[in-house]
Structures are given as structure tokens and as C-alpha cells.
Amino acid sequence: MKYPLISSRLAARLTILPFVVIALTIFVGCVLWSVQLSFTSSKLLPNSDFVGLDQYIRLFNTTRWIVSLKNMVIFGVLFTSGSLILGFLLAVFIDQKVRAESFFRTVFLYPHALSFVVTGLAWQWFLNPALGLQEMVRVAGWESFTFDWLVNRDFAIYTVVFAAIWQASGLVMALMLAGLRGVDPEIWKATKIDGVPTWRVYLHVIIPILGPVIFTSVILLSLSVVKGYDIVVAMTGGGPGIATEVPAKFVLDHLLQRANIGLAMAGATVMLLTVIAALAPWLYVKHVKKGANG
């Protein structure tokens, strides 16, 4: 009786095997080719002129690249922590068995259904000093009101952070809410009997229980940070000047506009290593540590 099951599984695996091989060949092949190009002097077209680490030296001596890395760090820290905190608070709010829970879940999760491009364009309009919040407040009578962060070199990156948190906190809320709903009700009963303040329960009991959910959220948010391109282009175009430049935009600009494939691939390789570094803890916990415990 087991042979038909075995044969059907084998047939299914053999059916998808060519697609898996092709996908892996194309993906791995393109990645390796990109890394190889980062060690060449390729400009408009790829070539095999090996120049060693020259592109990487030039990359890290480029002000625009250094600014993009700093912006990625600022964006990453504020975006990740802000999304986690806001998403957790929203999840706690909904977990209180509020009325119209489905409505609130939909409202809070809706921004995540939008792309970063749509989010960026919406916030670009809202924060535009001539059209958005500043102009509306001035029309309402507060003529001295000023909120020009979008066009201010020192604060523009923070407007991108606000928009990204608004877009991503709904996903974190959904993950956190699922985790909160899985907490044993007996824990809450015991803490109420002992008279433990609610905030201490969340801080010392609930948050440690939600550790795996928080870890997953951090990984997802970290990947969004590394790939952060759409929202920057839609909101600021990297400006004013290079105030909101990010590595992904640097790479695509040098690849498509500045005809410097070698330098662009060097930047892309650095981004690849960043993604691997972000995924390494998750892969370790999911496979290595789990295999050791199992």
C-alpha cells in the first residue's frame, strides 16, 4: 500500500526538479557573475579586466556611498525599533477584546497592503511644505507653522523612517497579535492573583514568551532595510542632495545611469554580504541549533 504513495512523491519531486535546477542555476550564476564583475573595470559593458580590490577601495572612498551606509544604519535602527514598538502596542490594544476588533485589525494592517512606492508618494504629498501638512495648518490660521523636514537635509531621512514605520507596523502587529493570542490564559490569572502590575507582566513575562515572534519580525524588517529603495525614490529621490541616499539606490544609479558596472557590482556585493549577515542568526536558530537540540 505504500508503493503508490512513494511513487507519487517521487514523481512530484522529479516534476519540479528541472524548475528547481534552472532557478538555482540562474540565481546562483547571476550572483557569482555579479561578484566576479566587482573585481573588474567594467563600465558600460561587462569585461574580464581583473583589477583586484580597486572597485571596493574606490567604493569606500566615495562620499555618496559612505552617506548611503550611514543612512541605512539610521533608517535600519529607527525603522526596526519603531515598527516593533508600534506594532507591539497596536497588538496589545487589539488583544484587550476591544469592540470592532476586525475593523481595527483591517485599518492597522491596511498600510502593509500598499507598496513602498505608493506609501512614499502618499507621504511625499502629505509632508510637502507647499501642499501637505504645513500648508493645511497655515490655511487653518497658524501661519507661522513650519514642518519642512522633507526638504531639510538634516531631517529628510527621518521622514522616510516615519513613512516606513507606518507601512510596516501593521505586519508586526499581526505577528505580535498571533503571539499574544497564544499566551496561556493561566499566566494572566496567576499574575492577577499575585497583584503584579500589568506593565511588569508584559515586560518580564509576555515579551520573553514572544521572543521567536520578535526575532522573526526583526529578520523581516532587516531585509526591508537592506532592500530599501522604492520608498526613498518615491519620497525624496535620494535628496535633498544625497541626504537620503541608500545603498540600493547607489547601486542602481551607477548600473543604469552612470555606466559603471564594476563599482555598482562592488556595492551590490557589499549589500549581499549584509543580507547574509542579517539572515545568519535566523538560519542558525532554525537549522543548526534546532538540529543540535533535536
UniProtKB/TrEMBL annotation:
CDD domains xrefs:
TM_PBP2 (cd06261)
* Record field: transmembrane: 12-35, 72-94, 106-126, 155-180, 201-226, 261-285
Q: Which residues form the ABC transmembrane type-1 domain?
A: 69-284
List the SUPFAM superfamilies hit by this protein, alphabetically. Answer: MetI-like
Where does the record place it?
Cell membrane
Tell me how this protein sits in the membrane.
Multi-pass membrane protein
Q: Which domain of life is it from?
A: Bacteria
Q: What is its main location?
A: membrane
Q: Return the Pfam families for the record.
A: BPD_transp_1
Q: What keywords are assigned to this protein?
A: Cell membrane, Membrane, Transmembrane, Transmembrane helix, Transport
What processes does the entry annotate via GO biological process terms? transmembrane transport
Mind naming one GO cellular-component term on file for this protein? plasma membrane
Q: Which family does it belong to?
A: Belongs to the binding-protein-dependent transport system permease family.
The protein's name? Sugar ABC transporter permease
